Amino acid sequence: MIAISPPVNLAAVKPNLPKISWEKLPDDFILPEDPVDNNLQPLLANALRESLELAGLVLESMLIATNFGICVTVNDKIVIKAPDWVYIPEVKPLPEAQIRRSYTPNIEGDLPLITLEFISETEGSEYSINPHYPYGKWHFYEQILQIPLYGIFHPKTGVLDLYRLVNNKYELQTPNANNRFWIAEMNLFLGVWKGKRSLLTATWLRWWDQSENLLPWGSEIIEQERERAKQERERAEQERERAEQERERAEQERERAEQERQKAIQERQRAEQAEAQLQQEQAMCQRLSDRLKTLGIDLEEEK
Known about the structure:
Order of helices and strands: EHEEEEEHEEEEEEHH
Distance between the termini: 181 Å
CATH architecture of the largest domain: Alpha-Beta Complex
Shape: rod-shaped
């Protein structure tokens, strides 16, 4: 009699999950020193941090870095990925004078909230789901670290794809009407902006606040201050000119008032002269009348 095995329930078969442990990198571990793909990548990363810092949104407890090793031990093998830009909300402080060479989540602080990769001319492993050591970046961020947000930026075309981890899988997010992605955990929008920075005209990643006001860079703040100072100078000059005009009008009014006063004086003098002349004439008439009377001539009787 042949024994028949029951059918295998394929749905119940689970893949071999990797053994993940969080261990601090040994101090003598030699980190790779891979060069960046082009000069734009560090500029993109610096621009993202600068506007956050100037807006007062970078705290001492945070870790924001570029090309910085994120470490985890998978199946007893150390795996290190260095995203082009990473934002970690809170990390444990280091002892004074100690420099952070790498970062192991959970034992050193939070998981990264968002990692960004900037695509170079030759696309690398940003979209790689390779599930085997040393693992593709997509697989590493999604399945091993399980980072909530993963952004892939194509500087050449100016396209930003942002993925959110939903049920252990990255789902492509839809931007708003202004082509910006709302990141609730940061209370900010992330999007693309075309313009000039560091003498380079390119498409940049920028932050906007919840009212979609652009968070400025230092050079833009300086330019805004320069423009405000120019406007203040222009307003001050206009006020000076208005004050000068008012002074001239007041001077003209004073001169007109003086002319009117002089005219009144002259009119009064003319009136006084006329009155004096009239009195003189009346006195002459009276003297003449009195003299005629002495000669026996009475002008009043003859009338």
